[in-house]
Design a protein that fits this description.
alpha/beta
């Protein structure tokens, strides 16, 4: 990871936020189902926490009841990112990998799309500076369950938001679905996100 230097920087840290608390029904937050997803936390950590010196990895569902102030900050940050970038932005700046050179992926996004988090939401400047963050990778996984206490979801989807404060172009990675595939296994999601960042 140090050699590839994708979300890593010798001068600043990267914040990696993995939000698996969203439920598709109206994008409502569901506390009970979010706690059930903690069974995947160790698997996610094993994949993404190999360089804690350069990356702060945050699992949103682990902050419940333990770090309420930090949870509130993270939820505000998530809301800011969701508000800043639209579906059109995500489509215009989508990539399979940060370093990929597939057709169309090197095109410059329209001028209106060059949104920089710290310009459009300057209230985050001090927060990032205090923590020495220069990069943010936010992953939002959305689940749908057939019933409130269902053990297994019937649908899932995700979007990854990669923002570098030194670049005015955001990058996005979303779930690639074909045919009637409505969900992916957690490990498949993790592998796609890892490939996006490091391969």
């Amino acid at each position: 990871m140090l050699k590839k230097e994708k979300i890593l920087s010798p001068k600043a840290r990267a914040l990696f936020v993995y939000n698996n608390t969203s439920v598709y029904q109206g994008f409502k937050f569901d506390y009970y189902l979010s706690l059930k997803r903690k069974e995947w936390n160790e698997v996610i950590k094993e994949k993404f926490t190999k360089d804690t010196a350069h990356v702060d990895f945050v699992l949103v569902n682990e902050l419940f009841g333990s770090r309420p102030n930090y949870l509130y900050d993270i939820q505000k940050l998530i809301h800011t990112v969701f508000t800043l970038y639209s579906e059109d932005d995500i489509e215009a700046c989508k990539k399979i990998r940060l370093t990929s050179h597939f057709a169309g992926e090197e095109r410059e996004p329209p001028q209106w799309n060059k949104k920089l988090l710290l310009i459009y939401a300057p209230e985050w400047y001090s927060w990032f500076k205090e923590r020495n963050y220069s990069k943010l990778f936010l992953v939002d996984v959305i689940y749908q369950y057939p019933k409130m206490d269902g053990a297994e979801e019937s649908y899932n989807n995700y979007t990854g938001y990669y923002l570098d404060v030194n670049q005015d172009r955001p990058y996005f990675r979303d779930a690639a679905r074909s045919g009637f595939k409505t969900k992916q296994k957690e490990k498949e999601i993790h592998n796609e996100l890892y490939s996006f960042l490091y391969e």
